[in-house]
């Protein structure tokens, strides 16, 4: 399965629309500064071979007239380019820091080593639910995301929708998302957080309000009961083995150490955007997570072939 790229050169959200022109301008300024400084250095440096043959490739250093003038010219040109960049940055920060009056959707997002826990709030307890590694938001809605770090410093970044915001243990930071079109947008932890930092991705799914409401209602449902003997055996394994770390609503599996599995099959990725959510990947992940994502908190399960088939048979019903 091909995942959408981590694209920071296009925008599909309100904040990203403010940031993108500044990004392109800074990129152009950076290239211009490098070219200008390289040109000035090429004028200022004179290669003169030493008379001695012991170091024929050395560069002779000498004081020449006009060196100070060239440095002043270089500094002047750099300042002329960088000062407008500073001014534009301040203006952009002011624009994206202006929060809407009230959110349409509220999400509490907690970063763990190395996955994302998303808790959707509601007016009543029965309207709240948890998911992992995949956020759904309605197009055109003001989405407030409360950001927390559970262990070390992480950083939330979905470049097509907005800028980076750090997630610091013991502190709640706020990010606002507003998508202007439907689509799937790749995000990534952008603060080094340990061994599997590179495999700590997520997806934001922007959909029409009707599609979002349908998804939300489905997420509120509890897990279905097993419908076959194999699923019943897998259900027992899930409660006994998976329930030590995971929650499956409607069952006795109620731990929140790992991702909520109630609607595992509604997500199209596994292990924080590391694997496609398909039966072979799911089986491999259960059997040997350390071989796929070394350092992950999930241990290998050492199941027999029949136990693994029974467990995946049940997990596939969690939609």
Automatic annotation (TrEMBL):
Q: Which residues form the Cytochrome c domain?
A: 229-319
The keyword Metal-binding belongs to this UniProt entry's keyword annotation:
yes
- Top-rank lineage group of the source organism: Bacteria
Q: Which InterPro entries match?
A: CcO_II, CcO_II-like_C, Copper_CuA, Cupredoxin, CuRO_CcO_Caa3_II, Cyt_c-like_dom, Cyt_c-like_dom_sf, Cyt_c_oxidase_su2
Report the membrane topology from the UniProt record: Multi-pass membrane protein
Reaction catalysed by this enzyme: 4 Fe(II)-[cytochrome c] + O2 + 8 H(+)(in) = 4 Fe(III)-[cytochrome c] + 2 H2O + 4 H(+)(out)
The record's subcellular location field reads: Membrane
Gene3D superfamilies cross-referenced by the UniProt entry: Cupredoxins - blue copper proteins
SUPFAM superfamilies named in the record: Cupredoxins (SSF49503), Cytochrome c (SSF46626)
The entry assigns this protein to a family as follows: Belongs to the cytochrome c oxidase subunit 2 family.
Q: What does this protein do?
A: Subunits I and II form the functional core of the enzyme complex. Electrons originating in cytochrome c are transferred via heme a and Cu(A) to the binuclear center formed by heme a3 and Cu(B).
Question: Mind telling me what this protein is named?
Answer: Cytochrome aa3 subunit 2
- The species is Novosphingobium tardum
Q: What is the lineage of its organism?
A: Bacteria, Pseudomonadati, Pseudomonadota, Alphaproteobacteria, Sphingomonadales
Gene of this entry:
coxB
